[in-house]
């Protein structure tokens, strides 16, 4: 497990974001909220992205996957697999 620490959001410079050494561009949930909204037409993807908002607040990875889907319209099998694993781990940690 990587060491985590708080760093200021690089966009708004107001909110702190929990990051590790791997995060190069930490952005808070409030700054990415507008990018997360969009219409998802595929029923399979609607079900995949239908998770509580607090999980999106906790994980920048989950936010980036959803933003990439909304931007490009598709995901790879590996992205879907790791999205499901991350959701399961976050739910288990509750």
Describe this structure in words.
The chain has one domain. Helix content is 54%, strand content 9%. The protein has a two-stranded antiparallel sheet. β1 and β2 form a beta hairpin. α1 packs parallel to α4. 4% of the residues are buried.
Strand content: 5-15%
| Alpha-carbon Rg, integer | 14 Å
Largest sheet, order of strands side by side? 1-2
The total of helices stands at 5
Number of domains: 1
Largest sheet: 2 strands, antiparallel
* Helix-strand pattern: EEHHHHH
The strand count comes to: 2
Taking the alpha carbons of the first and last residues, their distance comes to 17 Å
Shape: globular
Tell me the layout of helices and strands.
Elements lengths: L4 E4 L7 E4 L9 H8 L6 H7 L3 H6 L1 H13 L4 H17 L1
Antiparallel strand pairs: 1-2
């Amino acid at each position: 497990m990587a060491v985590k620490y708080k760093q200021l959001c690089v966009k708004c410079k107001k909110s702190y974001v929990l990051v590790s050494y791997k995060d190069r561009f930490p952005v808070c949930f409030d700054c990415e909220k507008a990018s997360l909204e969009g219409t998802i037409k595929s029923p399979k993807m609607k079900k995949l992205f239908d998770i509580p908002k607090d999980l999106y607040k906790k994980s920048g990875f989950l936010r980036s996957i959803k933003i990439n889907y909304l931007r490009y319209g598709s995901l790879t099998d590996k992205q879907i697999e790791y999205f499901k694993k991350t959701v399961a781990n976050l739910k288990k940690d509750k």
